[in-house]
Amino acid sequence: MNYSNQQSIRQEPGAGQALDLPPAAQPTFGPLTSEELRLAVRNHSMPLEALRRGVTPAGLHYVLTHFDIPDLDASAWHLRIGGAVERALELGMAALRRDPAITVPVTLECAGNGRSLLEPRPLSQPWVMEAVGTALWTGVPLAYLLGKAGVLPDAAEVVFTGADAGVQGGVPQQYARSLPIREALRPDVVLAYKMNGADLPPQHGYPLRLVVPGWYGMASVKWLASIDVVKTPFTGFQQQVAYRYQDSADDAGTPVSRIRVRSLMVPPGVPDFFTRQRFLRAGPVMLEGRAWSGEGAVTTVEVGIDGTWLPAHLDKPAGGYAWRRWSLPWVANPGEHALSCRATDITGATQPLQQAWNFQGMGNNVVQRVNVMVE
Amino acid sequence: MNYSNQQSIRQEPGAGQALDLPPAAQPTFGPLTSEELRLAVRNHSMPLEALRRGVTPAGLHYVLTHFDIPDLDASAWHLRIGGAVERALELGMAALRRDPAITVPVTLECAGNGRSLLEPRPLSQPWVMEAVGTALWTGVPLAYLLGKAGVLPDAAEVVFTGADAGVQGGVPQQYARSLPIREALRPDVVLAYKMNGADLPPQHGYPLRLVVPGWYGMASVKWLASIDVVKTPFTGFQQQVAYRYQDSADDAGTPVSRIRVRSLMVPPGVPDFFTRQRFLRAGPVMLEGRAWSGEGAVTTVEVGIDGTWLPAHLDKPAGGYAWRRWSLPWVANPGEHALSCRATDITGATQPLQQAWNFQGMGNNVVQRVNVMVE
After folding, report:
1. What CA–CA distance (Å, rounded) separates A296 from A180?
2. Amino acid B137: pLDDT
3. What ipTM did this prediction achieve?
4. Domain at A34-255: CATH architecture
5. Distance (Å) from the C-alpha of residue A282 to the closest C-alpha of chain B?
6. CB burial string B269-291: b at 16+ within 10 A, e below
């Protein structure tokens, strides 16, 4: 098998596809497994109180790492751009930093966010609902570098390969994903070397990552090693097997792409350590949270209070693909109350009250519910 | 109940002790609960590959937050020092930054690290084994400020209260812990405002925290609001109820204090995404990890390879209470291999092969085992 991330092994796009794939693990009604717990402690959620912040500090932003976090030396790092281009390029970090840079505020969410709430539960990273975060990403527009390389007219997709390597679904691989040419040439798709104004932290892709605004996080390849322009659709594991909306293991399904509309609330009051039950003093309180969609602007957020939906105030958006703050003043009366929030975007899509199920647990955006004891 | 972290409520030491404590939840042989999963996703482990780094980047260092992470304004923040002192003090962050500063490299570990591996399993944060990290903490020596305030001769302990508030074990509380006077006056105990050279991140106690080298993490109170010198032992929840070595719920137990000797290994090779099974190419590989003890210097690390213990090379320690790198070259032959590591400290304490059980799941330091498939 070919699975080193310490040597400079370069996987050809599509290589490493095993023909003898083991049957995919079946979703379960059973309890959480030790494998899921190990993933849950490795991969970091954003604590919901961080929704108070428009920009998520790096250490609070969600992180999903398929394999291990590579320990890379930026001074020796080179990005290779090749394939169906007029001029193949190889660029060091110093050269990339001299290119024109943009800064884009982007909300990223894991495509599997909310998976652990599904029944039966797909066996993978068991997110609850906090696999999200918003950061300011600074770097070179991908379109600028593709322009420098010169994309050939019959190019179909651009494949991005990271330095992170391992085995998934029986397939040894470096993490790799593709984008259609039209998405890759969007002006806001960035090869980022800074997050919130500082060098990328190791877990967020140091020294260089892709950020694709509007798409679920799997598209924003970290520890970016190479970019290949290809003439036929990429068939790597993370494109063809993982990250698909499937009804069953046998269903070829459709690819996961843009982030579905979603909102989350800062749980008001204070928590019980173990149960996370919330306690709140009676009186006025500002309910607040953030809402986002990869399909376009969020147009409405409604807050449910004991079953009645009220329209929230929406702050101005910070960017086309960054979350929007919402708020609603509430006078909390003693007793137990059920709070929720529901966003709608410009396409008319709205969050479901019950999550539709799919085989990999992708694209969940069910309404969040928070129970509060007011005293 | 008194449980606001948004208002400036100051809890008197010992206040908030409920007399009608609910019976402590009993440890379980059952599957992981949804409460434990919610804690597992909120609280962050250090991915084991970060053991390659002598200093853990802030976003990879373990984090345990009992309640919510407070969102504090450093410019309005004041530390109050009072109680059994000659002069009560109230200091803003600007004043603290003008005081003499030290930088201390410290390994912090959660006292409950490894809890999820116990049978029966105490119901709390379900750490696997990665609740650890080492950082450079910069700030004012606590002894300097206690000297400024003038500790009265009959003082017994120093109580530290954070701004984080909530309910635990039925008790509304701000997080608070004490240290005996002799520990509080150690020259390396620091009121830190920097971690690894940058302002503290929110989850690590911004704008100010205590760091007690050698002690499990519960002593290093974050979001530090007040310091009270007291003449009688502190009886707050986190001192008298939580963080004790108990045989059962009825056992008063003994307090948790210093970190027991432990070592961990960077799992060699690359992982399977879901099972975390490791795959490695046959040939030479450097096994490496870190070892630490709060009781004194680590003197030996042995590496177990298929049941045979071999002595590892130990690098120089980075400080009295920072972990030490260990390494051992290994020639990996094809087949499945069982690796482990075991540290011993200067007191003669060594890691157990089987973990002794206690009611809260505290102070676990069982030998880590890593299975590797070599091909």
Report:
1. 19
2. 98
3. 0.93
4. Alpha-Beta Complex (3.90)
5. 11
6. bbbbbbebbbbbbeeebebbbbb
State the distance between the two ends of chain B, measured CA to CA, in whole angstroms: 61
Average pLDDT over residues A22-44: 88
State how far residue A219 is from chain B, nearest Cα, in angstroms: 17
User: What backbone phi and psi angles, to 5 degrees, belong to A218?
Assistant: -60, -20
Kindly report whether the global pTM for this prediction surpasses the value 0.90. yes
Q: In this predicted model, what pLDDT tens digit does every residue of B22-54 receive, in sequence order?
A: 445 799 999 999 999 999 999 999 999 999 999
Q: Tell me what the pLDDT averaged over chain B comes to.
A: 94
How do the residues of chain A divide into helix, strand and coil, expressed in percent and rounded to 5?
A: 15, 40, 50
Topology (CATH level 3) of domain B262-374: Immunoglobulin-like (2.60.40)
pLDDT above 90 covers a percentage of chain A that reads: 92
| Alpha-carbon distances of B344 from A130, A145, A167, A312, B311, rounded to whole Å | 40, 54, 35, 59, 11
Using CB atoms, pick whichever of A50, A273, A281 lies closest to residue B66: A273
Could you tell me the residue ranges of all domains in chain A?
A: 34-255, 262-374
Measured CA distances, B36 to A52, B40, B61, B115 (Å): 24, 6, 20, 11
Q: Which pLDDT score is estimated for B24?
A: 53
Give the pLDDT band of residue A25 (cuts 50, 70, 90): confident
Asked whether the beta carbons of residue B203 and residue A67 sit closer than 8 angstroms, the reply is no
Share of chain B above pLDDT 70, in %: 94
B contact test, residue of A32, A68, A222, A372 with most B CBs within 10 A: A68
- Which amino acid makes up residue A264? L
Set of chain A residues whose Cβ sits within 8 Å of the Cβ of B40? 37, 40-41
Distance (Å, rounded) from C-alpha B56 to C-alpha B65? 18
Tokens 């310490």 appear where? A6
Task: Match 């770097």 to its residue by tokens.
Answer: A139
